[in-house]
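User: I'm putting together notes for a lab meeting next week and I want to include a structural view of one of the chains we've been expressing. I don't have a solved structure, so I'd like a prediction I can at least talk through. The sequence is below, exactly as it appears in our construct file.
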Amino acid sequence: QVQLVESGGGLVQPGGSLRLSCAVAGIRFSLHDMGWYRQAPGKQRELVARISSGGDANYTDSVKGRFTISRDNAKKMEYLHLTSLKPEDTAVYYCNAVHSWIPSLNYWGQGTQVTVSS
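Assistant: Thanks for the context. Below is the predicted structure for the 118-residue chain, given as structure tokens.
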């Protein structure tokens, strides 16, 4: 079975930092593009960042310069380092994996809550 498990969420103050992790099992990790999405109450799920199987990263404009996505193929892990956090970053953050050339092979984790509040 394919399993993506997020961890590292929690309550942080504005301006603080957090690192999210996604542990992946059941797929050939190195052949998948990885991403982080988030969903806030009353809003649609949005792409936050993605990193290709080759290591190329892209970010939504609102997090550029503040968040960093990375991956460790040996550990089958994906990370999102969040800095300079703002209250509007509050959301459930989801890990995503999609095969680099078979896009129907698309998987999601259950999410981890990030709350930015003083």
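A couple of points you could mention at the meeting. Residues 38 and 44 are 8 Å apart (CA to CA). The chain has a mean pLDDT of 97.

User: Perfect, that's what I needed.
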